Automatic annotation (TrEMBL):
Highest taxon, organism lineage: Bacteria
Keyword DNA-binding: yes
Pfam families in alphabetical order: HTH_3 (PF01381)
Organism: Solibacillus palustris
Name of the protein in question: Helix-turn-helix domain-containing protein
Keywords for the protein's UniProt record, in alphabetical order: DNA-binding
Keyword Nucleotide-binding: no
Start and end residues of each HTH cro/C1-type domain: 12-64
Amino acid sequence: MSNFRFAAIFMQKRKQLNVTQEDIARYVGISRAAVSKWEKGQSYPDISLLPKLAAYFNVSIDDLLGYEPQMTEQRILKTYADLAAKFTKLPYEEVDKQIEELVKEYFSCFPLLLKMALLYANYFNLAQNKEEATEKIQSLCIRVKEFSGDYKLVNEATIIEALSYILQEEPQKVLALLGEDAKVQLGAEQLIAAAQTMLGETEKAKEIYQVNQYQYLLGMLGNASEMLMLEIANATYFEQIVTRVEAVLDTFQIEKLNVNTALVFYLRAASGFAVQNRTEEALRCIARYVKICMHMDFPVRITGDAYFYLLEDWVKREVILNAQSPRDDESIKKSLYESVVGNPMFESLKEHAQFKSLVTNLQHHLRIGG
């Protein structure tokens, strides 16, 4: 009961009613000394007395104890950020224990459970026991799906659970969970926007259309980045993907809207060109990757622009469910650097003068130790 605020709340309520410790002792049938210990925080009332005390003060038992079973969105975000930062400073096992204690305390706060599952996924590479880490992700997601009753949380939990199976290299479980084929997009967002328009909520409808465009745009670019790695042997088609996607990236200024999407694309494109022994094109894509890194703002966040001018409010509301939640800045910087210097597909480029120069510039800008 260390997180309860019973002593302070009890004293405050007693003084508000202008009653003495003796009055309350007589009401519940105990000694005044016992009540005095409650107010000093030296002991707590027997559990059987809590309903009677709560009724006396006309509050719920949770309010009397100062127990809050739910966290606010802002507190969840701060908790996530604090724990993410600890992963870079403390042993994984120590942070893991803190997460376990937090989950026990807020086992019915489903947005928090989902965020902790995502946290485990984002720092999966630090876990020594990978099987245990994936089991924790899955158990949190399954609890959210079974008990939250919120379709948004359920959908997010399903995606994160599927991600855990990818991390565990169990593709059949992913297909069993999500299905084996692409699903027809039913356009629910368009219907919602149309309904909002009918109700005269024009600004809300515009926001929905903008958010829908944004998500489909990122989805298309993400799919194209994944396709690159499957089309390396088909050099003509590979180059066509690169040409078309670069045009979209530049047209919509994706590196400002969602920098990770642009970085992943250029890294994949460079990797493919390197495998194809197209050194000049590979170095061009690495140079673009480094340039984007050097113009990144930290902390990394999703933003709108002149075209997606209604995106900001949606991001603020939905960030708690965002499956692309960033890790801490230091981890991101190390990952950006390692994605180039530790990429086995760049082995043929490592002695090239331009590659060395790009790596040095990236290391210097991100302040990565040599």
